[in-house]
Specification:
This protein is mainly alpha-helical. It is built from 12 helices and 9 strands. Helix 9 packs across helix 10 and helix 10 packs across helix 12.
Length: about 400
Amino acid sequence: MTEPSPAAGWYADPENPARHRYWDGTSWTDHVQDAPPAPSERPAASVPGRRKRRGLIIWVSAGVVVLLGLVTAVVWGAHQFTSAFVPNGTSGTSSAAGSGGSADGGVPLSEADFYQRELTNLRAKLPAGDALIDPLAAPPAEFVVRASPGYRAAAREYLESVIATVEEAGSMQFETLDAAESYAYSTLGADIEEQAGSILFGGAGTELETRGFPQDPAIVEIEQRITDTDIAPDSDGSYLRVAEELAALVGSRITLDQDEAGCPNLEKDIAAFVCLGGDYGGWGLITYTPEGMAKVADPSFVATMKHEIAHKLIHVQCGNQSAVKWNNAYGEGVANSYAVIYLGADRAALARVGEAHPEYVMNDTTDAQARALHESDLACYDNDALPVQ
């Protein structure tokens, strides 16, 4: 008889007891975090009727580091958490026994060391002030599933609502400090882990899981500027200058050094390439090969540039989803379609590339996928659904 697998969550790493590793419900993932500090050594008063804490709250660790630099879209109001924070239906007052009660018999949850430590860590996940997310910055690698600017903005709003609710819960009264500490460790943390931890994995279990976000408005404005740019050669017949201007609009520059971007195992018999994701240094680079530079006096030189820019903008929207089926099957064709539809690229020039390299062919399918990606980041995934982690 097979024992059922534990629920998804953070557990002690079987390879290293000094850290935790994320179990996705089926297997161990590559995502690890430091193990939590030991809780207070004072006796832990039990809170009847509540589940035991499975592990350190995900928002105290790597699980919510991913929520740095976000803004917009309302997700789950704080009221949806409030009922979960009231112990035993006691309207915010616990009768658990222990030591450390105040003279009037009431100890607020906010006096618990564990509550203060976790609230401080949670607040530290937000950037200072009202910092806006830069849509042209490389998507944070910590976002395992979704990385679009729109999703990260909604995730920030979600995190802010969690902070507000945890702050409100700090006024809950307990008879003893031990009872407050026990509740902060075993119940409050478990509720937040259960309800907020899935943000790292695309909002699974929240309304964000089925909510799609379009390409960022700042990116759409840049796309229009690229489309409106006059494509004309210099007096020497070269299109290099105008290609450099287009690259600068997306924070990139042209390089001829084929090793500068650090792309691994790349077949460099193509006109140009970008190296995105991972730890590569190519986010701000668009590399032209000798074959590509040989066409610097041909308008196709600019069409190639727009194709590479399309790759970068798709990556802004989708993150590193290189393994999804549509990308493996016709990703280069989708980049061509995106360049034609949203960057004003010459369809005929890019179609000629498809004649020599079938993976670059454009058709109704690639056009439809490019439009879908532009309209919703959920289209980055197979069958418009988040992948199982």
